[in-house]
Amino acid sequence: MDSLIFDVDGTLWDSTEQVARSWSLHLREQGIEKELTGAVLKPLFGMLLGDIAANLFPEADAGWRQTLIEGCCEAENKYLLTHPGIVFEGVEEMLERLSGQMPLFIVSNCQAGYVESFLESTGLTPYFKDHLCPGDTGLAKAGNLIRMKERWCLKDPWYVGDTMGDFRACEEAGVPFIHAGYGFGEVPQALYRVSCPQEVIRLAEKLKSHP
Predict the structure, then answer these.
(1) Is 60 exceeded by the pLDDT of residue 133?
(2) According to the model, what pLDDT value does residue 155 have?
(3) Residues 76 and 93 in one domain
(4) Which CATH number do you get for residue 7?
(5) Beta bridge mates, 136
(6) Alpha helices (H) along the chain
(7) Domain containing 130: what range?
(8) Full strand arrangement of the beta sheet holding 104-107
(9) How far from 178 is each of 4, 33, 163, CA to CA, in Å?
(10) Rounded average pLDDT over 25-48
(11) Are residues 58 and 90 in the same domain?
């Protein structure tokens, strides 16, 4: 292990209620009375935005769905700057400890600007070297993992994520996967699983010293 790449939602923080609130407010401004909740959005987090839109607005045509989801995401980025999600307990300690040992990165299936809102609203920017998402590159998670490896000449990066989608992207990209079991999803196939951020520290230090 020479580096760690992190997912955001369900791995570093939980912003589902804040996102649901921002989207509901935006939809109301568009004349759509659709009250979203964190419980509705949580199973969708980690999907590409087009798939989320198809789940939430199945009655709309593709063009209108795209317009709606783009508006929701723009409203979300602004809302999170003043109404941040909840950073999981122990995450900042984990990042501070590990960033002194190896470079840390973020790869997430989110819109452009979301990771920036996350970093700015939480103050966690100094711990990360770089981040990529489909909104920046047009690539899904596997493609962005490969691009991150190439951009930084990473020889043995590992990924920490919480969903089956994360696991499959890692398999496609050839990146070992650590399941954040405290997050949103189940990944029975994961060979490595942690139940809290503190366990990421212990596992990473073990893997780094015993390749």
Answers:
(1) yes
(2) 95
(3) no
(4) 3.40.50.1000
(5) none
(6) 16-29, 38-41, 49-56, 62-82, 91-99, 114-122, 134-137, 141-152, 164-173, 197-209
(7) 3-14+86-209
(8) 130-132, 104-107, 3-6, 157-161, 177-180, 192-194
(9) 10, 39, 10
(10) 87
(11) no
